[in-house]
Amino acid sequence: MFNKILIANRGEIAMRIIRTCKEMGIKTVAVYSKVDADSLHVRFADEAVCIGPAPSNESYLKPSNIIAAAEITNADAIHPGYGFLSENSKFSKICDEHDIKFIGASSSMIDQMGDKASAKATMKAAGVPTIPGSEGLLESLTEAKTIAKKFAYPVMLKATAGGGGKGMRAVWKEEDLEKAWESARQESKAAFGNNGMYMEKLIEEPRHIEIQIVGDSRGKACHLSERDCSIQRRHQKLTEETPSPFMTDALREKMGNAAVKAAEYIKYEGAGTIEFLVDKNRKFYFMEMNTRIQVEHPITEQVIDFDLICEQIKVAAGEKISGKNYLPKLHSIECRINAEDPENDFRPSPGLISNLHLPGGHGVRIDTHVYSGYVIPPHYDSMIAKLITTAQTREGAIGKMKRALEEFIVEGVKTTIPFHLKLMSDSAYLKGKYTTKFMENFSMED
Prior knowledge:
This protein is of the alpha+beta class. The chain folds into three domains: 4-103, Rossmann fold (3-Layer(aba) Sandwich), CATH 3.40.50; 132-201, ATP-grasp fold, A domain (Dna Ligase, domain 1, 2-Layer Sandwich), CATH 3.30.1490.20; 207-440, ATP-grasp fold, B domain (D-amino Acid Aminotransferase, Chain A, domain 1), CATH 3.30.470.20. It contains 14 helices and 22 strands. The strands form six sheets. The protein has an eight-stranded antiparallel β-sheet with strand order 13-12-9-10-11-14-21-19, sandwiched between helices. Strands 3-2-1-4-5 form a five-stranded parallel β-sheet. It has a three-stranded antiparallel β-sheet with strand order 7-6-8, covered by helices on one side. Strand 12 (270-278) and strand 13 (284-290) form a beta hairpin. Helix 4 packs antiparallel against helix 5 (107-114). The termini are far apart.
């Protein structure tokens, strides 16, 4: 087992990793930018090293600074959390070259699954259902038109290096294809330095359902059931739940088996997520794989009583997984509390938290790094907390969430708490009848 783990991240996920490390008797090193000097992860880690100024490309995204921090503190492993360098194959390789264990996927695995076109081809070879579309990258607009006709409109153009909705365009008719092709390529080039595009048949009325998997160094994998992440805005998740209200026992078994098959086919090591689109007829298709811990991992932990960060660390240290698949025993919902104004198109709202009261009680969990007097910097993601409620039933989890949201007081900045409160009373949401298009018709107005 590791003696000391450096956490190459900030905010609530850094605090989350520190907690598990302390419980396992492992020393921790926090890294921080100058603007994060007063953050809780800096206070609660055993050691802390400043790695640069506020901009992430000069601190949290700078591998040389993080490796230097690991070496001067004698850390024997690095946990990247999510975001930042968590799916950066070059960083994973650099860690390996410096004999520091990267608690995540290998560089070759990240490359294999990070490129969406190659990931799709790999899953197809593994026998996992994939969305009909182009074989590899599109060579030209002419080829795009040919393939769109073959599969029939609507189709979806996707950047091979994309993420967060960038470089994606839905195209409903041929006359719109050229404009979508040009704008998606430009956006992808600007965001990722890569304008490679592929095309898929557009799945109508889709649910975004992901399967949590864990694999060990011996090639064995298991799944920890599903999470429904369909409530999204601009391809960014807002709330998640498990089990999915759309799921049946038969579908859960099929999707779970497909996810395990995928993980074992590529000999995946660590915690990861196989993401699927599920159509209105409950046919599922591989969408992408995330080779890291997910923001929404706590709801899985709550319904099966399982510490995913602990499992990540054990697998990275060479331990075997149990090999059994897990099914949800309870119902859990997560609301992402962001410093954003839902009444004003979710505009970011950084600044001083002048007063804070966190909810509590049975079945309520909060993962956060903020406190009264904390200044939310404008340089990073706007999420300041994750509120998780767990109960015997979906209705019970929603009831707890309403109560907890009403107790959750954040003064000084705008937050998404009012949005989540409205969501928890929405008739379609209460019936579990929602798709990834849900937010297109949702309004904060009465």
